[in-house]
Amino acid sequence: MRRARKSAPRPVQPARPVRPAYRGREWRRPLRRLRRLAALAGALGIGACAAGPGGSPEAALPAVPGAVPDGAWDVLLAGGRLVDGTGNPWRYADVAIRGDRIAAVLPAGTADARRARAVLDVSGLVVAPGFVDINGQGDTGLLADGRALNKLHMGVTTELMGESNTPAPVNARTLGPVDPADTTAVRRARDWTRFGAWLEEMEAGGVALNVGSFLGGTTVRRYAMGMREGAPDAAALDTMRAVTRRAMEEGALGVATALIYPPGAYAGTGELVEVARAVARHGGVYISHIRSESAGLLGALDEAIEIGRRSGAPVEIYHLKAAGVANWPLQGVAVQRIEAARAAGVDVQAALYPYTAASTSLQACLPPWSAADGRLRERLRDPGARARMAAEMTAPAVEWENWCALSTPAGAMIVGVSRHENRALVGKTLADLAEARGRPWAEAVLDLLVEEGNVGMVYFAMDEANVRDLLRQPWIKFGSDAGVWDPARAEGMTHPRAYGTYPRILGRYVREEGVLTLEDAVRKMTSAVADRVGLAGRGTVRAGYYADLVVFDAETVAETATFTDPHRLARGVVHLFVNGTAVLRDGAYTGARPGRFLRGPGARR
Fold it and tell me: 0.70 cut: is pTM over it?
């Protein structure tokens, strides 16, 4: 890895495009025919009616015998500003839902309200496909709480998981000892030998949004080799291919690696090419948290492109960024590398979250060798190993990704601890920790890891101008890189992206700053993701497609979470439908859990 370069002067940015007006008379223009239809619906007793918690809008309506014909629509969204997910210009439209599908998309005011059991007047609001989170982290959280309230209030209708690890498939190498008194763990150790088993359990237990997943690349390696370093032998490589093939047939969207975390960091390029070939044969995607997002960014990106070229698999880069002030100029070069690879026929694209801070664990500050063979806790207590760790953590140039150095200790904030006596550290930086304990920062980090095992962190390391530049790229998509939260039950802190990713883009970067258009933003949140991973019939508002729909107020949609007060639901999402069922109505959760396990294109149906 090369030594980090000094930051270069940033070139003058071109003038941003004039953003569309959201407050003009055209936006508030009354629809006369819609008013007449709404009046007719009211006379028939089938007008819009608020549903209480746990109900759907149609269930809240009184029965009107004979008023609704056979083949009726369940819900009519009347007069909204349709942004259909394709990137095409918005238009006024009526959208009808029947069962779990979109039954019709008609010019505003032309739908016959008498065909609908419920009519929602959404004039003044945007109707769009529900957002598809390509970088969801709800793999364990959704098993405990299927409501996913933070995601629903962002407009997310589908959570795609799997970065690095997946709960299944399991074997003795991935699980370790199972407590026989823990009946749930015993059952899962028995049943989750198939990739799809955990998602089937999630669906059966009830989830408010759809779920799908890549197979974790770290899971693949651990399944074959445990926590060992080194290249796989022929038998281990065969195991990796086989477990990948089976997972693809059970519905995995592809394989997702995270190459800065052990043991994923131990995987070589040739090994990853072989796994990606198994993915490509089943129509999947190789998606990666690449080996470096800092000084080694370009080399790591070249490796991902090489994996795609040699394997034939489409390549997706998780949360593309250049971290560390000295590395900010590398992002522009990385964009050029992606464009050149695409021009040469390699299908490489990327996603991002719209923030200048990352979030991962405190162990991301340790050299990868420290966790080899599962002996991290032992090494943290060994004076010789500790001394080596501290020396490498504070070295000016390293061959691995050190997030404490990228953010500096003053820019690394503690957000999650488990021990009561350490709760006062939440919201403090590593510089604060070192000062309070009277220890060099690296020693203070190692001490804290001995106490906690691991710690949740936020690292401030990216450039706002770089974020804006990536938002504009045509091959970019958006992902939260966050799990599921209920603010009423949340403890500690988290990154505000968990509550604000999509509303932040729509509010700040579309409405306020005009960095990208509403239509382009919605495309990157919806069809760009669904098409990329092969979710047929989703991501676009089109007759016959699944009725995953978000209705939001473009004038008020915004994040309310902050880095110091993150557990705050976003505002502006008014209604949300998943598979035709309302999960948010007038901004409130209905209690419904209509989510499904969405399988990839290689699944055996």
Answer: yes
